[in-house]
Amino acid sequence: MSVTAAKGFTAAGIAAGIKESGNPDLALVVNTGPRRAAAGVFTSNRVKAAPVLWSEQVLKGGELTAVVLNSGGANACTGPKGFQDTHATAEKVAESLGLGAGEVAVCSTGLIGVLLPMDKLLPGVDAAVGQLSEHGGEKAAIAIKTTDTVHKTSVATQDGWTVGGMAKGAGMLAPGLATMLVVLTTDADLPSDLLDKALRAATRTTFDRVDSDGCMSTNDTVLLLASGAAQVTPEYAEFAEAVRAVCDDLGQQLIRDAEGASKDIRIEVVNAATEDDAVEVGRSIARNNLLKCALHGEDPNWGRVLSAIGTTKAAFEPDQLNVAINGVWVCKNGGVGEDREKVDMRYREVRITADLAAGSESAVIWTNDLTADYVHENSAYSS
Amino acid sequence: MSVTAAKGFTAAGIAAGIKESGNPDLALVVNTGPRRAAAGVFTSNRVKAAPVLWSEQVLKGGELTAVVLNSGGANACTGPKGFQDTHATAEKVAESLGLGAGEVAVCSTGLIGVLLPMDKLLPGVDAAVGQLSEHGGEKAAIAIKTTDTVHKTSVATQDGWTVGGMAKGAGMLAPGLATMLVVLTTDADLPSDLLDKALRAATRTTFDRVDSDGCMSTNDTVLLLASGAAQVTPEYAEFAEAVRAVCDDLGQQLIRDAEGASKDIRIEVVNAATEDDAVEVGRSIARNNLLKCALHGEDPNWGRVLSAIGTTKAAFEPDQLNVAINGVWVCKNGGVGEDREKVDMRYREVRITADLAAGSESAVIWTNDLTADYVHENSAYSS
């Protein structure tokens, strides 16, 4: 399953000793071909980690043979030494597999501002190479976890070809272009420009609309590698839909495992003048701490939805706004609507619909509630 | 003290029964002249409460004789009936004092989306009028509290004239133009255009740079009333500085009493290319939930400062950023700086300095930490 569900890939996940806990912390994914086409999207945070700067460069050629990923340290804000460490990691993988370093992408996740323990990471690469297997996808998915409580994988199998992937991410989870660390693989045979097109289309409406805590990471990376091993070239639309489905599934898994969360909140903005307006309003609602606290307390506090909408530049008239929570239109025409007592808030999923009455565009943003557990998890220790 | 420190003002604060707790909930401030010049600034939230819409209109003439304020209900998102209620409140005050309704500003604070109990509020106006006194400033300040644990007042006395004021606000505290409810009074004799100029200059660098929880209210209002009773017309610069000092003091009192907060965080952005850049970066840092949790846990997690800076459009180079926490430069040139163990985090005030190395402009934004108490206070009941 995971990144080895598609033919033409091997993977491994091991404990290199980067994490003090001794948990798995190093993953390797290798494309055994025959093709090496690849695409990637990266964080739009302007403070980018060293592995993001490296992998962006490597991807420019449209090909990748291997991806090495570590948890236990983000290698972000680590200056020239951090970049040298990323480069050395790629060189080590290349040397072990008989490749050039320019065929190896690097991903890191963990605490910002700390150098990686290269004395543990580099021997770990050798150990991972020794364990590469067509069944290694799950172990790789486990090795990239940080505060994730479960590993995340997804597979879409079509007629003779497959798209699979793994993801990690539980906090600092508001990707601007991608999210956290995701590796997707396929055995379909497509050139890198179509991989890139399908990946950008998929992430734009999946990972990009996950906004768990409003905090954009320095390390977000989504990679898509194609081996061509299935010897099938699917229709582009069919392929793009499979990539989107896997991204959507992984994005949902990220939301369901977000740090400290007790509610998964689906915010659908409808009847917006533009899709950008719908996304802006959805994000503003998703980032309203007071609303997120209210929903944690199972309080359908729609006034906080309206105060969030009011901070945006989207087209709307305040006296035409309508808001439903779990299907009950508690706000109509900017004022009191149906009885808020009718809203059933007992379940983990909360659905908010914000009707801007300004057009026909829409967007869905996913977020979580704000809980004492989130505060505890992010104040009790550095992460 | 408070709004009655300046000559030419009376005030009252009473319990009208708007709050179920029976606590004081209705305040009245009256300018007894001889002048009636006034100015006001209001929330930039596009979803504005009925009293904001009313008071904005009233202020257009540059004069005010009375301000009536209620806690226990924001009268926001209450439709045409809510506006009628605000109008009726102003009419009632006008009738009781022999004024026109157009001389009366109205301010409300409390839960959004609920109509005010006018059967209690209107008789309360009569009761408040009956208790108007030159010593009523403190009672008025107490009557406008919601989740505030203390009432907030401030006075600046100059040579023969005075500026005084009161404020409330503890949550939904990220004013875009003003903050929560503030009434300032002066016995200096100045025309409304100079009051307006001084008030806008003062709020721009005081209340506007308080960002406790990133949530902008629908009801923010700051009013300044001048009685001329001191029969002194101060130099504009001297007057503007007194207004700024009172606004700054009240803004600090709001931060110190913010819901659930255990830290007051002063974020100074220096060496920015423009003041707008400095404010944008300061706000981005102030709104980063992960950083606010870390500071709650007394963890000088500067990586979260850099990830917040990276989401802005301000001019900077990532490898030239410097960050100090409580005077220790823990991040230099975008990487690891002085030992974070040197940072003493034991005190309530935390000082963050973010050096963008891109110019010579600066700005200070104040915020609070994010705590389990904030989550509890905003999830356990509607507010």
TrEMBL record, chains A, B:
Q: Where is this site: Cleavage?
A: 178-179
Q: Which CDD domains match?
A: OAT
Pathway listed: Amino-acid biosynthesis; L-arginine biosynthesis; N(2)-acetyl-L-ornithine from L-glutamate: step 1/4; Amino-acid biosynthesis; L-arginine biosynthesis; L-ornithine and N-acetyl-L-glutamate from L-glutamate and N(2)-acetyl-L-ornithine (cyclic): step 1/1
Q: Which residues form the active site?
A: 179
* Main localization (coarse): cytoplasm
- Marked site, Involved in the stabilization of negative charge on the oxyanion by the formation of the oxyanion hole, at 109-110
User: Where's it found, cell-wise?
Assistant: Cytoplasm
Q: Does the keyword Transmembrane apply?
A: no
Q: Where does substrate bind?
A: 146, 168, 179, 259, 378, 383
Could you list this entry's UniProt keywords, alphabetically sorted.
Acyltransferase, Amino-acid biosynthesis, Arginine biosynthesis, Autocatalytic cleavage, Cytoplasm, Multifunctional enzyme, Transferase
- Transferase among the record's keywords? yes
Catalysed reactions, semicolon-separated:
L-glutamate + acetyl-CoA = N-acetyl-L-glutamate + CoA + H(+); N(2)-acetyl-L-ornithine + L-glutamate = N-acetyl-L-glutamate + L-ornithine
| Entry EC no(s) | 2.3.1.35, 2.3.1.1
- Say what the protein does: Catalyzes two activities which are involved in the cyclic version of arginine biosynthesis: the synthesis of N-acetylglutamate from glutamate and acetyl-CoA as the acetyl donor, and of ornithine by transacetylation between N(2)-acetylornithine and glutamate.
Q: Which family does it belong to?
A: Belongs to the ArgJ family.
Can you say what this protein is called? Answer: Arginine biosynthesis bifunctional protein ArgJ
Where does this protein come from, organism-wise? Streptomyces vulcanius
